[in-house]
Amino acid sequence: MNIFEKIESNVRSYCRNYPVVFDKAKGEILYAKTGESYIDFLAGAGALNYGHNHDYMKGKMIDYITSDKIMHGLDLYTSAKEDFISAFHEKILSPRQLNYKIQFSGPTGANAVEAALKLARKFKKRTGIFALMGSFHGMTLGSLSISSNKSNRAGAGLDLDGVTFIPFNHGPFGNMDTIKYMEYILNDTHSGIEKPAAMIIETVQAEGGVNVADIEWLRKLRKLCDEHDILLICDDIQVGCLRTGSFFSFERADIIPDIVVLSKSISGYGLPMSLVLIRPELDIWKPGEHNGTFRGNQLAFIAAKAALEIIEEEKLEEEVKRKEYFIKQFLEREIKPIDSSIDIRGIGMIWGIDLSGLKNNNITSGVIKDCFEHGLIIESAGRNDHVIKILPPLTIGIENLNEGCNILKQSLLKAIKNANETSNTSFSTNII
């Protein structure tokens, strides 16, 4: 038994799939203490869009540390925060004509979600929230209440109420007009459901199985929220910061949410940081009404500003489109033909291989294990973990992207073959 198993809580999870001690990382490669290298298709669950230890960001942070600058600042005015706010407004908000105030909440995405929910309820003076089936927004009680996974919700130890879950426009309800369904709920005097303060969405449900919202559906949803005086909150924690091809995932639908939450890759380097973007008229907070000791992570401000510069200097938007094409072509030509029941879906550089349609569909854990044994770190998502999620750093080189995809293909072929052989053996035994 190692020190982790002996001392660390049972709550640990990722390490169970990748049972080595990691020591170093660079770009898209992780290195174990024993020297083995692994291509990273996990990217810190979306927190490392620019890879591990990017030289430019690292240099900026080293310069800052060696200058004895402020490291912990609560919400004091600091030069690091000033520079980040200026850069974010100049490079991200202003070119998109987005008029948002920036709130620095606690350092996690879940805390940003909590702040968004609190503000929506405070502003609208209504308590209900609409959320989507298949959603994941965090593990604190408020964020967990709007997350639909039953196993996650069970960890709360109490009832999570105040939320109405709406079918997403994908998956088992793909043919259902969910906009019309919400119209019915809101207009029917006997629906038993009160008008909510807000509706929170992920335009791409990452943990839900890489479910990509239809553009027209997003536009209709924006219109519905406007017509019924409901705030629209977009959770861009995992799929923001260029993951879908544009900085914000909602840009492709040409809509503007009332509130946007960002975390994970907003800091650029994997440091804790989160933002809540708020339409100015919604900013009715009283001073200190939502605060947090670590809402002023100065080093994260430095890295976050550097990340915005990297986007421009490395032309990452073009890079994501180029790699999106590569991944899509590989999945359609190399993975989809393996079995016609395999469903491929994704956008930008987040893709899912849905194996739920296979006759023997309980193979994702075997695929992930085999991938790891052959030098690839990748995870599963979705209902019953039937979706293999591809989430490499945006900066990954094409050679390693290709190698990682091929490792995945071979592991998938092996798992399906083994599952079929096991099934045939069982069938033969039953006949005898």
Description:
This protein is an alpha/beta fold and 432 residues long. It has two domains: 3-55 and 315-431, Alpha-Beta Complex (Aspartate Aminotransferase, domain 1), CATH 3.90.1150.10; 69-313, 3-Layer(aba) Sandwich (Aspartate Aminotransferase, domain 2), CATH 3.40.640. 39% of the residues lie in helices and 15% in strands. It has helices at 3-7, 14-17, 43-46, 55-66, 79-93, 109-124, 141-145, 150-154, 178-187, 215-227, 298-313, 316-335, 364-373, 398-431; strands at residues 22-26, 29-32, 37-40, 101-104, 129-132, 163-166, 198-201, 204-205, 211-212, 231-235, 259-262, 275-278, 343-347, 350-354, 376-377, 379-381, 387-390. The strands form four sheets. A seven-stranded mixed β-sheet has the order 4-12-11-10-7-5-6, sandwiched between helices. It has a four-stranded mixed β-sheet with strand order 1-2-3-15. Strand 8 and strand 9 form a beta hairpin. Helix 4 (55-66) packs antiparallel against helix 11 (298-313), helix 5 (79-93) runs parallel beside helix 11 and helix 13 crosses helix 14 (398-431). The two termini are 43 Å apart. The mean pLDDT is 94. InterPro entries: Aminotrans_3, Aminotrans_3_PPA_site, Dat, Ectoine_EctB, PyrdxlP-dep_Trfase, PyrdxlP-dep_Trfase_major, PyrdxlP-dep_Trfase_small.
